[in-house]
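2024-03-11 09:14:02 DEBUG pipeline.ingest accepted 1 chain
2024-03-11 09:14:02 DEBUG pipeline.ingest length=265
2024-03-11 09:14:03 DEBUG pipeline.predict start
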Amino acid sequence: MTDLSISQYAHEFVVTPENVTADNEKIGAEIDITELHKYYGDVKVLEDLDLNIKAGEFIAIVGRSGCGKSTLLRLIADLEQPSYGEIKFKSQINFREGITADDIRVMFQDPRLLPWKSILKNVQLGLDKAQYPKAEQLLEKVGLKEKSELWPSQLSGGQRQRTALARALSHTPRVLLLDEPLGALDALTRLEMQSLIEKLWLEQGFTTILVTHDVSEAVQLADRIILLDKGHIAQQFNIDLARPRQKGIAFAEFEQQILQAVLST
């Protein structure tokens, strides 16, 4: 069973310019990656990779399995260390202000909720008590206000992923890393989650990097798509389609172009 009816989905999650307030502070961080290498023994996963991501940009990374997508995400998240090279962050709010691990949040394919805590308490993890109301507000934003006292086992897969998204955003991240978080969802729930992620990204302005095997999803969400091949950037595609994006001729042309590029690697 899906989380919302199609009519509810259309009402709550379609992104329009009216959803985004012009005076919202953009909190995203610029990411500058220089000469990045990552080896596991003799295996070269990433080699001499250079990439600049603008503050507040939405990047999608695509490529065949084993090309280094998730490794790059883990390096940016500081879950692993580079073999060589640098990953630097710059705050958009203040040039002199540093970005720490607390400013970066990762959302995985598995929601990784604590099964012995309620949905609300999962979202409150790591927050000061003074920030608890923010967790409640985010549950309302992701459509789970009425389910806040339930256990994770009582939710559908899509609802658990919405909870994981609310938990990630409760810490006001400047960088949100998405490692195929929608891969296990059914088609309609996946569309709902795509629209929800886009809506919250537009509202808050955090820098977003999405790893996905779904080329259509990448075109739907990203400002720019990076194609990795054997640890190198093979191609980059700027997606200059207006939001909210419609799956018309221009969308299909981008989708076909990127799919062909992936298949040729």
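2024-03-11 09:14:41 DEBUG pipeline.report The helical segments are 6-13, 69-76, 119-123, 132-141, 157-169, 187-204, 215-221, 249-263.
2024-03-11 09:14:41 DEBUG pipeline.predict end
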